[in-house]
Amino acid sequence: MSVMDRIKAEVEGHPIVLFMKGTPQFPMCGFSSRAAQALKAAGATGYHSINVLEDPEIRANLPRYSDWPTFPQLFIHGELIGGCDITVDLLESGELARIVAEAQKPA
User: InterPro entries of this UniProt entry (predicted)?
Assistant: First the structure.
């Protein structure tokens, strides 16, 4: 399976996916930490996170897949939401909580 197929499988296989440096419990950069905190504050539970520092292929290819150059990258329902600033802005506007609640609804 190509790295692009792996990325696509991750993005499409989980309602909420955060590609970040480190983990939500142990973030390895301030931007990733703020994005994970924003998701938590918005009520996201059990979302899927991928540590790009542990997977150099994903780290190198995700910007090509998403057309977004930096990390973290938040995907909800297979769609790129954005990075740290957009995630925090959505939290502050109340929009992130709405999107997260919608994504976490049982099928």
Answer: Glutaredoxin, GRX_PICOT-like, Monothiol_GRX, Monothiol_GRX-rel, Thioredoxin-like_sf
